[in-house]
């Protein structure tokens, strides 16, 4: 390879030639040696290589000339000195002429390189064949002075040099011809060493096709390298003074006079092979960055890369800083793994990533770097792929239609024969209601076609489809060029298989390949698992483990592999076991369910612990204040409490007191590092996985009643409308007088008495009740003002469970927020806002805040259009206008459904470092509609709050630095986002698991084995219906062609089906009906075939209309916001447990 792209060599080494007397092994190493690494201009090709580049005739002339010269010097020793000078002149004349313009050196070197490709390939082939056994004398250690005239004054040495030079030429020629010969005719080692060299004037044999291919690949790689070298080489390095050139020639002349033995190992220099290794190491350091997964595996069978190489971390950071690349968290579509999105803080919309190649081995929640692509190109590629799928589907349908038509023709012929024979003598003449409906539909379609028929739009259906697709076109498209961070120790659960799905079990190659892991998360691809990691029991009987769950961790994803490789961690257990399902939930969400290390536990204070005396001197003493907490009934980690005092001037002193966790968890301690790794507590249905040891969570930090506790407080002075007049921050000592539940506070708000059992000192009950009423009055005013200022209320359905003694759910209900919940919410929100303003003012580059971005624009537009089609005007320009639109809807049921639909476009809030944004407008919290917000009020269960406590403490002490730099705060923010999202997903999955177990118990007591209840139609499309079960907070999409129906009719915001009589809807026959109805095409309609009766079958508790059903035609119409009867099928034998929601067939008496 041309070395113009490498660092330039020092001037004294620039034009050194390899000695012509070097051995064949040295020549082979020179041919394979990578380009020089030394700084300075590019080195010219060695003299030995230059000789190989000559034409065969020139080689022959030089060989004969050298031989005659050697003979004459042997016959006349006296003339050796003169002859030596003549040899030097001949050598100079034989050397290729070099251009003196140093600026054009890279191009000239590259041109020379093109002519040396064939000899270099021959030398590589030579190394792949057995080498002739040539005796080689080991040189003696060189002494100092090897460059003196004394070294050149030995006639015997000069004689040996000439002979060895001639001998080496013959050896190189012989080996070169042996390498170029076909494999079948290649001589053995002994023969190769004894055969005479072929005449050099013979034309070299034509290289094989494989050699030509390798040559082209090599030339292309060298051209790219040369181009890069031209750009990278500074002009100053390419220039060289003429005197310096002359000096180098003289230096080279001296080196050619050295004794051959001394030249091989001069003192202080390395052996050629050692030097080659040195240059190779230097080359590897200079080559562009190679990610471990991008290293092509050596050996035969090497496959081409299936993905793009990852860029180096330096290139990624520079690209982000320059605005060329964009970073963000990756989200993969659960229903279509080919579609994924990246949310960047620097772009107004998500970046759409299509296909696995552009996703480039990134997984869900990876922090990736994306390069933007042309949207039209990516979108056309997507449409082409979708169109190809549709064409394939159409071809399959056409084949099925042809078979069906042939079968119908045969049946008709048989029927005609039967009729002739008198078998079928009766034909009904009356037209059924179904036939009349078919006629009406046909007439309506014909009339629509007649109305829409114009000469200019004939045959433009595809264009209309393209317009519909273009409406969904994203604003940005991109591809992943690097992964900044992947969640540490991420595990995946699933099933392990002996063969890859779809492989032939009789295929010996597949049978001898790796095991295959199928994750339960459909967004994760199949993983290859080495067979050696499986147990002997599994390898002996793989079928016995088909319903067993294993845990795997992704180890690598090579660039030339379609599937990642994983490491088998453990056997979890059998599918269906509730404990196994819980373990899978924790593993899939990377929740650490283990005790704390001994090093972390050593950081805890010794028990029994008491507040040190110095804390009473440095903290504000609030032990005499009437402080109490309001939390869920079963809460054990009480991290917030309140107090209120009515002042003489009509104002109020209101205090929010938060557990002082940062006092016990010191910075950078082992306990702090483990808490940062967990980042949050995880709340499952049956238990809590804490962020901190229980000694802190439930005792020393928890604001339990009747004990003194350290706290961090925010105390305001407010007027009677909740307006803040003054704010104080500081560390305090409190002593709570009561632990109240939300229901207890709600009793007081409703005008009832507080249960006496909740307060240790009964004399405090009247005062506590008055405090609750005062707090409630202020919270109502604060809430009203907050929504007037543009806040948005978006609460999803949350389930609560009651468990029996065995841990099984015996009661499920939708958690309802009460006024007592909103009371606490208002003061906690206000405390977080106040602290955010304080730390952001003190440390504008290092503050840890929480932002909520604007909704996903595309999804929000779809929601607004859906609501508009139903007659509801939604203004989504701001959070305030969106809230006002909801408030204007008179029906509570419709408003509730619209709120659920509006959640889908919303993004999750996330933590960030203020130094990551240049514009403070990016700090906005969309839902709260406040300029800045943070989390301060729950440090027992959130590490972000611990960080905020430390920042607030530094701000109160007026320190110039908070102890964290911007990069550290951003890294911690990212970790908190990851863990919070994972904990939220684990909580939802745990709720789903226990709901499935609860419904399974109900179904076991039902005669039909199913649960029937009401559902609301959220949306109706061409083939699918989105249903919501408000009673359990379940959502599901039902495909109409997977039901026992005869035909489908679709229109704006509705879908109508004609049910088959006496065909119950069962989960076991979904696949059967989907296969049966493959060719069923929806019939388009402009108006619904049925009209909902507002006064018929409607529940007085709901204002939503019932989906109408016509018993005569067995037609049922599902429209958006309509109510219908559904049944829930439960299966605990899958992972995760499945809950299938299916509409009930009203034309069938059996459910």
Distinctive features:
single chain, 1151 residues, alpha+beta, five-stranded mixed barrel, five-stranded antiparallel beta sheet, disordered N terminus
Helix content: 25-40%
| E-strand count | 31
> What is the end-to-end distance?
77 Å
Shape annotation: globular
For the sheet with most strands, the description reads: 5 strands, mixed, barrel
Q: Could you list the spans in which at least 5 consecutive residues all have pLDDT below 50?
A: 1-85, 93-153, 173-204, 228-245, 253-272, 281-286, 417-468
Fraction in beta strands:
15-25%
Global structural class? alpha+beta
> What's the pLDDT, averaged over the residues?
77
Write down the Rg.
Answer: 41 Å
Side-by-side strand order of the widest sheet: 1-2-3-5-4
Secondary-structure map with pairings?
Elements: H1 24-32, H2 47-53, H3 56-75, H4 80-94, H5 105-115, H6 117-128, H7 155-180, H8 189-194, H9 209-232, H10 235-238, H11 242-256, H12 260-264, H13 272-286, H14 313-321, E1 325-332, E2 339-344, E3 351-354, H15 355-359, E4 367-373, H16 375-420, H17 433-452, H18 461-471, E5 476-485, E6 491-497, H19 508-511, E7 515-519, E8 527-529, H20 536-540, E9 548-556, E10 565-574, H21 578-588, H22 598-601, H23 613-618, E11 620-631, E12 640-646, E13 652-659, H24 661-664, H25 670-678, E14 682-683, E15 688-689, H26 694-700, E16 708-718, E17 724-741, H27 742-749, H28 765-788, E18 799-803, E19 809-814, H29 819-842, E20 848-851, H30 857-869, H31 879-887, H32 892-903, E21 910-913, H33 943-956, H34 966-1004, E22 1011-1020, E23 1024-1029, E24 1034-1039, E25 1045-1051, E26 1054-1059, H35 1070-1076, E27 1083-1084, E28 1109-1110, E29 1115-1119, E30 1123-1131, E31 1138-1143
Parallel strand pairs: 3-5, 11-17, 25-27
Antiparallel strand pairs: 1-2, 1-4, 2-3, 4-5, 6-7, 6-9, 7-8, 9-10, 12-13, 13-16, 14-15, 16-17, 18-19, 20-21, 22-23, 22-30, 23-24, 25-26, 26-29, 28-29, 30-31
